[in-house]
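One example copied in:
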Amino acid sequence: MQTPKLDDKVSLGKLKKRLLKVIDHKTWEKTHSEKNLAGMLVRVSCELLDKITKPEMEDQIREDIVEALLLILYIAMAQNIDLAGEILKITNENENIYILPVIERKYLSV
């Protein structure tokens, strides 16, 4: 898998700062509760699940992934979560095992 060039240059912190510039704080908190953002994330994830095996929907898949990431960033900012720190923490705690099986055990065993 080839890494897009900007992924190596832009940090999560830079993305968060850019998102904060876009948000109109006067109306944002009134219309975008964390619960609403989480609901939007579920809907975007469902759309992605429906499209992910359809190569002809590559543009829509890319759009859904970006929308999901933006929603995750918004929610993390609202919760004051240090995403990079949490990702490093999880991967350091599980450095001897592949991280996806850890996530699968948590969510696919339901």
User: Anything to note?
Assistant: The chain has two domains: 5-79, 83-110. Residues 83-110 form one domain. The helical segments are 12-22, 25-31, 34-51, 58-78, 83-93, 99-107.
